[in-house]
Design brief:
Layout lengths: L7 H10 L6 E3 L14 E2 L9 E2 L3 E4 L13 E9 L13 E5 L11 E4 L4 E4 L7 E4 L9 E2 L10 E3 L16 E3 L2
Parallel strand pairs: 5-6
Antiparallel strand pairs: 1-12, 2-11, 3-10, 4-6, 4-7, 5-9, 8-9
Length: 179
């Protein structure tokens, strides 16, 4: 005896007829993990609002390293550093660099970041007042994430119905459907 199959649309209608809408509540974002969004989440600012370093290293002017090689390394003066809670306020000039951490704003005058592991610290601790040596050129934009690379203000960053994962928690408060 063969079983009778029903069309997909009919099966979906049967399942949906047994479901109830959940209450929509607005909760703080840190409590939203695991819940579905009731409406689209929209970025209220550019994410990130500034160009930032994709890794720990040294913010440089690529022109300073254009002729650099293993046989002809270039030495730069470290004039500052950017770490959590500390932003370098100056401008990088010719022959200068700034020690920078992942996510920190790229200082004025810099157009590339050279990763820490391939830079030789000649003297000091690698921070302000030190001298560091580079043995390879850097390309414009290397290891730099552009401003608004992830999203522009007004972009939908999560859609209604998506379940909020811990990694998606950002700086917005969105209504969610409470199960």
């Amino acid at each position: 005896m063969a079983e009778k199959l029903i069309p997909l649309e009919d099966a979906q209608a049967i399942v949906l007829s047994h479901m109830n809408r959940t209450e929509v509540v607005e909760i703080p974002v840190w409590q939203a993990a695991g819940l579905p969004l009731a409406e689209d989440a929209v970025a209220d600012i550019d994410i990130s609002p500034f160009a930032n370093s994709a890794m720990d290293g040294y913010a440089v002017r690529s022109a300073d390293l254009a002729q650099t090689s293993g046989e002809a390394p270039v030495t730069l003066d470290v004039i500052g550093h950017e770490a959590a809670g500390h932003v370098f306020e100056g401008t990088i000039g010719a022959g200068e660099t700034v020690r920078i951490m992942t996510g920190a704003p790229v200082p004025e005058g810099a157009d590339a970041v050279v990763k820490y592991e391939i830079v030789e610290v000649l003297d000091g601790d690698g921070n302000e007042g030190s001298h560091v040596s580079f043995s390879a050129p850097a390309k414009v934009g290397e290891n730099v994430r552009s401003a608004a690379e992830e999203a522009h203000a007004g972009d939908v960053v999560m859609h209604a119905g998506e379940v909020v994962a811990p990694a998606a928690l950002a700086c917005w408060q969105a209504p969610v459907a409470r199960a």
